[in-house]
């Protein structure tokens, strides 16, 4: 601790280890002696600066004016040696920002600004005198008398306040100091709040009211939510964030982010004009798509808003009519309640039908009563269709009875003579051995071609005529998968 607490002895620190109490005699708070010289040489010395001749620095760090080439080393060109000092500063001395400051150097800055102000006043006075001379010459040419107006006298006075007042527009000026090497300069910063207005954090001093962030000067919520909206001028920052062009700018930012994520080279801060143009094109295309989809829906389903209004009985299921009934349910007083009709079209017959769909029921299926068809939107065949359907049903019933009767009777198997390939053959069939041998060779050749498709020629012609010898050769050469000796066949 730098000082003792208020409840202890305030003359000295309470704990010794918290502060260094012994001062080092080697520490000092003095500063370097600027511009001090110690020795002026008459001739050049070995190891001195090649530019100025001083022994305390080299040519790289020399700050003197460059020496003339070929000039002799005389007292005129040899610079004196600087005074070099070394200090050991204490903790406070190292951190003292004003240590070594020479107040006399600030007079140069004051003289500089005073000279600039005098020159400005002189220039303004000359301009006012020129304007007055032009005005006098103009009046002299017109033959009028020169009147001594108070405006002319005020114009000759160089008033700094009036000059500055003519330049002020809308808001007051706030001068901000900017550090520069030339002694500092001022920059004008506009203040966006008029000083006569009440600050937003002073509108409601309740601790539990709207939160105010002093760093960003923002108050999102309304500080006076219960006050009359016609009397208060500030309703929170959220009102400005959600009104005007703020919402459009926010949507533009979101569109730029989403477009960038999808691969488009769009950036709101890098290219704002491009992002705004793309957002406008996007809105135009989106409106066209919405209108197009709306038109297609209206063409397909129609517009219920343009049709006649539906009755209240159908919408609400009730009416204001009063009807009185007796114990048996008969109406004594009032009009009998009319059952509201459906919004769908009734008694509309299509495809030549004389009854609606669902007017006939059979075998768990709905149909048309006029033609007894169970297929919806089918064409009506009237009585002829009913007769044809009944005839078809009778014929199907007879066929089923005949089939059941045939299944009950045993079938006698006929003995047939089969050829070697499994087909019926006549009793006088005789195979030619020579043709059979040729058919066997032909079948072997065909099997070799099937094994190796690469050797098969491109233009291959097959004969469609098959003889009995060819069928016998195919049976003999065919591989039987159930034969245990099939692997030994060649």
UniProtKB/TrEMBL annotation:
The Pre-mRNA-splicing factor SLU7 domain covers 89-359
GO MF, one annotated term:
pre-mRNA 3'-splice site binding
Gene Ontology CC: spliceosomal complex
What's an example Gene Ontology biological process for this entry?
Answer: mRNA splicing, via spliceosome
Query: Localized where?
Result: Nucleus
Cross-referenced InterPro entries, in alphabetical order? Slu7_dom, Splicing_factor_SLU7
| Glycoprotein among keywords | no
Record's keyword annotation contains Nucleus: yes
Task: List the Pfam families.
Answer: Slu7
Q: Which domain of life is it from?
A: Eukaryota
Q: Using the record for this protein, list the coiled-coil segments as residue ranges, or answer none.
A: 430-461
Question: According to its UniProt record, where is this protein mainly located?
Answer: nucleus
Q: Which UniProt keywords apply?
A: Coiled coil, mRNA processing, mRNA splicing, Nucleus, Spliceosome
Q: What does this protein do?
A: Involved in pre-mRNA splicing.
- Subunit structure and binding partners: Associated with the spliceosome.
Instruction: Name the protein family.
Output: Belongs to the SLU7 family.
Please state what the protein is called. Answer: Pre-mRNA-splicing factor SLU7
């Amino acid at each position: 601790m730098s000082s003792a607490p208020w409840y202890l002895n305030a003359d000295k620190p309470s704990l010794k280890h918290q502060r260094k109490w012994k001062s080092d005699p080697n520490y000092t708070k003095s500063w370097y002696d600027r511009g001090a010289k110690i020795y002026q040489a008459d001739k050049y010395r070995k190891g001195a600066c090649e530019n100025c001749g001083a022994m305390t620095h080299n040519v790289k760090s020399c700050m003197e004016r460059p020496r003339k080439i070929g000039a002799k080393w005389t007292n005129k060109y040899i610079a004196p040696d600087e005074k070099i000092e070394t200090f050991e500063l204490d903790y406070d001395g190292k951190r003292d920002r004003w240590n070594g400051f020479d107040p006399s150097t600030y007079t140069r800055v004051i003289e500089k600004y005073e000279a600039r102000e005098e020159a400005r006043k002189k220039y303004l006075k000359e301009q006012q005198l020129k304007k007055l001379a032009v005005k006098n010459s103009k009046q002299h040419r017109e033959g009028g008398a020169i009147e001594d107006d108070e405006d002319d006298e005020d114009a000759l006075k160089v008033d700094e306040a009036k000059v500055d007042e003519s330049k002020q527009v809308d808001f007051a000026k706030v001068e901000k100091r900017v550090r520069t090497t030339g002694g500092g300069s001022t920059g004008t910063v506009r203040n966006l709040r008029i000083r006569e207005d009440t600050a937003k954090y002073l509108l409601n001093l309740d601790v539990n009211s709207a939160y105010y962030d002093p760093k960003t000067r923002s108050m999102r919520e309304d500080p006076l939510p219960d006050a009359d909206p016609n009397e208060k001028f500030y309703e929170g920052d959220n009102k400005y964030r959600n009104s005007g062009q703020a919402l459009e700018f926010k949507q533009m930012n979101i569109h730029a982010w989403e477009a960038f994520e999808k691969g488009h080279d769009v950036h709101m801060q890098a290219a704002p004009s491009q992002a705004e143009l793309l957002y406008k094109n996007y809105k135009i295309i989106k409106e066209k798509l919405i209108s197009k989809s709306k038109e297609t829906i209206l063409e397909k389903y129609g517009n219920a808003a343009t049709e006649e209004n539906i009755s209240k009985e159908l919408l609400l299921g009730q009416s204001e009519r009063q009807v009185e009934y007796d114990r048996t349910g008969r109406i004594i007083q009032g009009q009998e309640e009319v059952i509201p009709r459906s919004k769908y079209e009734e008694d509309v017959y299509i495809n030549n039908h004389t009854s609606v769909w669902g007017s006939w029921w059979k075998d768990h299926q709905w149909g048309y009563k006029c033609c007894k068809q169970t297929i919806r939107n089918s064409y009506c065949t009237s009585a002829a269709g009913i007769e044809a359907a009944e005839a078809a049903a009778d014929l199907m019933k007879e066929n089923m009875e005949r089939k059941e009767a045939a299944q009950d009777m045993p079938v006698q198997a006929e003995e047939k003579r089969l050829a070697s390939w499994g087909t019926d053959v006549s009793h006088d069939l005789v195979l030619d051995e020579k043709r059979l041998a040729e058919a066997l060779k032909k079948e072997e050749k065909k099997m070799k071609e099937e094994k190796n498709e690469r050797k098969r020629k491109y233009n291959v012609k097959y004969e469609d005529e098959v003889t009995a010898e060819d069928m016998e050769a195919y049976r003999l050469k065919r591989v039987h998968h159930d034969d245990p000796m099939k692997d030994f066949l060649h």
